[in-house]
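Final report, section 2: Outcomes. Of the targets proposed, DUF6759 domain-containing protein is the one most frequently requested by collaborating groups, and we therefore present its record in full.
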Amino acid sequence: MKKLILFLSLILSFTMSAQKKGKDYSNILKSKSIYEINAFLRDAHPDDPRRSVLKPRVMEMMKEYIKNAHPADQKVKDMQEMLALLRRRPSTKISFDEMNAIIKQKQIAKYKAELAAKQSTVVYTPSNSQNTFVVNPTANSAVPDAEAEEFNMLMAVSPVEHKNKTVKILNSLFDNDPMSKECIVLIENKSDCNIIVRMESVGTIKYRLAVPAHNESSIVIEKGSYLFTSLVCGAQYASQKTIERPIMVSLGSSPAK
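The predicted structure is given below as tokens.
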């Protein structure tokens, strides 16, 4: 009996601890923050009565923000997308599969446009000024970018090579066969530096993908476990990933991190 009481006490303490770690929405009805209310709608129980008050309120707040925002305000697009979601569903919460489908459709549209134009939508011109040096945050000094020449080589593909790559990517995007041995990886480079992402698996399976600063690139690879590595504005990136379905990997920011 004592053991049972002790066990129940432990469960109760863990539950209370978990609740304390969660976000406190006790004063959410007084909130004037679009993002805080939006977070509440994503987290709250579907039957929480506060939803009926806060959902229409935050939608009005979003409309007002869009109406009064500066034309160059980058948050406007986010607000429009959130507002569109709230018109169709209880919150802006999107599942991984839904997000994956959105990314997939955007990629299909992009590569279809490239094939129609018979060229890349990204025009790359090798430059020594952008990536000859990067800032080393630990030494606080400029160091030579040893990857610049390799980056230029990877980007300098012929029109035929680019077309073949684009067709392969499109085929992978349209391929919904779970038995397929390949899938697509999208790399988003949010940093101020051109980067090379290296994907290494067991044996001789290795891939390299050049991704220009503030841009994105895709590659079709064999499914499996990979070590992703890159040098992002002097900072080392490394992550082990198991690739079984299309994924997007975002690297860096402004400044890179």
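The first strand starts at residue 133 and ends at 136.
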